[in-house]
Amino acid sequence: MQMFECREIEEFGLKWLCFEGRIDAMTSDEIEKTLNDLMLAGERVIGVDFEKVNYISSAGLRVFIRAQKQLSRVGGEVVLTAASPNVLDIFKMSGFGKLFRIEKTRKEVGSAVGASSETPEIISADIRGIDIGYVKREGVQGSLRVFGDQRKLDEAAYTESDVVKIDSKEIAFGVGLGTLGDRYEHYRDLFGEAMIINRNFFFYPGVKNPAVDFMLCKEEPSAIEYKFLHGFGFNGTFKYILSFEGKEGFIELTHLVNAFLRLSQADLLGLVILGESKGVWGMHLKRVPIPENRPENGKPIFDRGNFSDWLNFPLEPTDISHVVACTGIAVRDKERASPNLQNVMAEEGRFHVHGGIFSKSPLSKKIAQFEDELDRVLTELEVYKVQHLLGKTRFSSGMAGIVELKG
User: Fold this and answer.
1) ∠ CA(245), CA(137), CA(264), 5° rounding?
2) pLDDT value at position 116?
3) Are 26 and 44 spatial neighbours (Cβ–Cβ below 8 Å)?
4) Which of 234, 222, 281, 274 is nearest to 378 (CA)?
5) What is the pLDDT of residues 239-296, one digit of tens each?
6) What local confidence, expressed as pLDDT, does residue 117 receive?
7) What structural domains does the chain harbor?
8) How far apart are the C-alpha atoms of 397 and 394, rounded to whole Å?
9) What pLDDT is attached to residue 221?
10) HEC profile for the chain?
11) How do residues 74-118 score in pLDDT, each as one tens digit?
């Protein structure tokens, strides 16, 4: 029986797979599983040491090609080193030199990919069963803006005069009941759960067969206006960037927000969360709350007789294993908050968060990659829904940015 060994080590700031023996059809499954586990754990640059590999077949090569394709989509790569002359010949024959970075030593790889550069100190904490690693920055205190009148929602009383126009340059993050369009008669029937996240706008229209529409502002923000009936937005820089993982297999959103409030001493927080779903509990409007759509029975839309016609409300969790990108605010003491702030807080808790449900994808847990990973999710992954997230929504792990806001 052939001898084969795979060791994982960490050196020059990279995870390394060090192989010994043959890499062929009989060992490729084990290698592929190891690579996939590293990618799912958030590794984006993976080093492979071939110093003790005596043979590699095309079946073995294919495993690394698949990993390279996956990592290239998220700005990562597989880097190869220490191949013997006969293995190098196989690389050249297979065209590997065009697909991979190949260096002589692990040290050269570390220098080539910049892995040895300084990284911020990560502080570890256990907050009520949640493993958190975080970096604390200087962070400029942000500002919160509340707009529109949420009290008109229950009576479906919004008209054209209630529309608030938000320039895309004004707000970096926010949630509310929003839409896109130039003329009221064209967009009045398309308001829905909306979020502004990193200046990108996503909304889920309150129509019979909705689909998420969005406007990306990846480069310099333009003069496009977002339309809202009510909502809030905030600006500021991240005071904390962190990773989180639940010790019991999942973390409810309520517990996660409470952990953030324990980590920061501020009374009001702006939140941006990237998480892997263990079950989303989200709700959204089925209709736009304008007079033309008022219930025929004359009762509020949240009345028991109208509730199911107006809101999609979960009876069980959905979208397990999907990537969820969320933004919103959390307040330390809801009772002491201003009336405007109390009006936008969810009744069941001290936070108000909207989330976009994106396609399934490996999600980095490396704090230094948070902003790049957020950009990747928003601009590259397919988005299916935008919903108001309830406190029972569950995550297995993820990353978050916290902006401390003026109360």
Assistant:
1) 60
2) 44
3) no
4) 274
5) 999 999 988 789 999 999 999 999 998 999 999 999 999 999 999 999 999 999 999 9
6) 47
7) 4-112 (3.30.750.24), 125-404 (3.30.1330.80)
8) 9
9) 54
10) CCCEEEEEEEECCEEEEEEEEEECCCCHHHHHHHHHHHHHCCCCEEEEEEEEEEEECHHHHHHHHHHHHHHHCCCCEEEEECCCHHHHHHHHHHCHHHHCEEECCHHHHHHHCCCCCCCCCCEEEEECCEEEEEEECCCCCEEEEEEECHHHCCCCCCCHHHCEEEECCCCCEEEEEEECCCCHHHHCCCCEEEEEECCEEEEEECCCCCCCEEECCCCCCCCCEEEEEEEEEEECCCCEEEEEEECCCCEEHHHHHHHHHHHCCCCEEEEEEEEEEEEECEEEECCCCCHHHCCCCCCCCCCCCCHHHHEECCCCCECCCCEEEEEEEEECCHHHCCHHHHHHCCCCCCEEEEEEEECCCCCCCCHHHHHHHHHHHHHHCCEEEEEEECCCCEEEEEEEEEEEECC
11) 778 898 887 788 888 888 787 777 788 888 887 777 766 654 445
Asked if 280 and 357 touch (Cβ cutoff 8 Å), the reply is: yes
pLDDT tens, position by position, 121-142: 899 999 988 999 999 998 789 9
Tell which phi-psi region holds residue 310, choosing left (phi > 0), alpha (psi between -120 and 50) or beta: alpha
For tokens 């968060």, what's the residue?
353
Q: Taking the alpha carbons of 174, 179, 184, 188 in that order, is the dihedral positive or negative?
A: negative
For 108, the token pair is 């050269």
What's at 212, amino acid-wise? V
| Residue 29 pLDDT > 70 | yes
Distances (CA, A) of 239 to 160, 273, 373, 374: 38, 14, 18, 17
